[in-house]
């Protein structure tokens, strides 16, 4: 754990999975307390949830457009094989439906806003759910000097989906200084000086149902949480400024209007796009599954190559017939 000279004050609320979440009372906020139901990974629940459907118009279009752009970023073969269809395409409607039933109301509100959130907004509106369920979380690390003034704020977004641990265990790992020492976020946390105080604030952004991977098709159940992480990390500007992931950098703060002249509310603590992450194979993974995964990856890569090549071929008339006199040999 961190040395005693680096105190951490964790401000969050906890709730048991499956129960309504009640916001803790706010001092002098003047606002009524709100209750939210935990999102369920169930298409039927989305169809019957008026609040979810009503919010769709506000953020779903932004989400779908950005998701298409996200898939031009670098990604692992495992992600490409798990998330692409048999034809090597992306199912944006399917992925949007998953986001609609797993994002919390405060996450949807954040995406629907025209202005960037602040650390005060997160503290006032978002919550931490202490659960073993899979999901996506954010952690804001705030350093203060001896006078209590804020020096730096760094935000990290991550996901966790282990069937035995989930987000609760992932939080404990972040608090263990022996783990992930090469991570940009952990380097910031562990560099806290004795004269500084460090506060970690945790927020749950999305949550689904626990799952077990039994077949090759089940790899999608894990991959979609990395997609959620990448979408939410980019929406919150969580990529570190020195990251070389340039395509992902272009998507930072995507839900919000251009505010290039305004000071950013925090620095990013993520070193790369979550689509580049891989994960362990299933314990019962067969040779046939590995072959199927390689074939799916090839199908996707070849489809992507052809899609990228198509505009070039059109521009340079590469699809024109070379036979003299053929009507298809004329541009247009």
Explain how this protein is built:
With 332 residues, this protein is α/β, with parallel strands linked by helices. The chain folds into two domains: 270 residues, no CATH class; 47 residues, no CATH class. It contains eleven helices and seven strands. It has a five-stranded mixed β-sheet, with helices on both faces. The protein has a two-stranded antiparallel sheet with strand order 2-3. The protein is globular and about 80 Å long. The N terminus is likely disordered.
Alpha-carbon Rg, integer: 22 Å
Give the neighbour order of strands across the main sheet: 1-6-4-5-7
User: How much helicity do the residues have?
Assistant: 25-40%
Given the structure, what is the number of helices?
Answer: 11
Q: What's the overall geometry?
A: globular
Kindly state the number of beta strands. 7
What structural category do the secondary elements indicate?
A: alpha/beta
How do the helices and strands follow one another from N- to C-terminus?
EEEHHHHHHEEHHEHHEH
**What count of domains describes the coordinates?**
2
* Low-confidence residue ranges: 1-39, 41-55
* Euclidean distance between termini CA atoms: 67 Å
């Amino acid at each position: 754990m961190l040395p005693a000279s680096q105190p951490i004050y964790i401000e969050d609320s906890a709730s048991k999975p499956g129960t309504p979440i009640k916001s803790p009372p706010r001092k002098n906020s003047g606002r009524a307390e709100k209750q939210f139901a935990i999102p369920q990974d169930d298409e039927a629940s989305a169809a019957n949830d008026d609040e979810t459907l009503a919010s769709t118009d506000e953020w779903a279009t932004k989400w779908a457009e950005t998701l298409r752009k996200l898939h031009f970023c670098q990604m692992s073969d495992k992600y490409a094989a798990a998330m692409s269809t048999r034809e090597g395409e992306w199912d944006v409607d399917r992925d949007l439906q998953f986001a609609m039933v797993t994002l919390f109301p405060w996450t949807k509100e954040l995406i629907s806003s025209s202005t960037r959130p602040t650390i005060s907004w997160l503290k006032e509106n978002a919550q931490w759910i202490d659960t073993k369920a899979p999901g996506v979380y954010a952690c804001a690390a705030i350093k203060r000097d001896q006078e209590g003034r804020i020096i730096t704020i760094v935000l990290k977004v991550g996901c966790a989906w282990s069937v035995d641990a989930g987000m609760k265990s992932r939080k404990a790992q972040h608090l263990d200084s022996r783990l992930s020492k090469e991570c940009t976020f952990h380097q910031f946390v562990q560099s806290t000086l004795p004269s500084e105080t460090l506060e970690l604030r945790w927020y749950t952004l999305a949550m689904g149902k626990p799952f077990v991977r039994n077949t090759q098709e089940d790899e999608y159940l894990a991959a979609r949480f990395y997609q959620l992480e990448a979408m939410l990390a980019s929406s919150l500007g969580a990529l570190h400024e020195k990251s070389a992931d340039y395509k992902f950098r272009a998507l930072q703060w995507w839900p919000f209007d251009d505010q290039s002249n305004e000071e950013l509310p925090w620095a990013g603590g993520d070193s790369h796009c979550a689509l580049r992450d891989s994960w362990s194979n299933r314990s019962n993974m067969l040779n046939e599954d590995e072959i199927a995964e390689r074939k799916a990856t090839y199908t996707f890569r070849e489809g992507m190559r052809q899609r990228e090549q198509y505009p070039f071929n059109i521009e340079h008339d590469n699809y024109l017939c070379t036979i003299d006199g053929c009507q298809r040999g004329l541009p247009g």
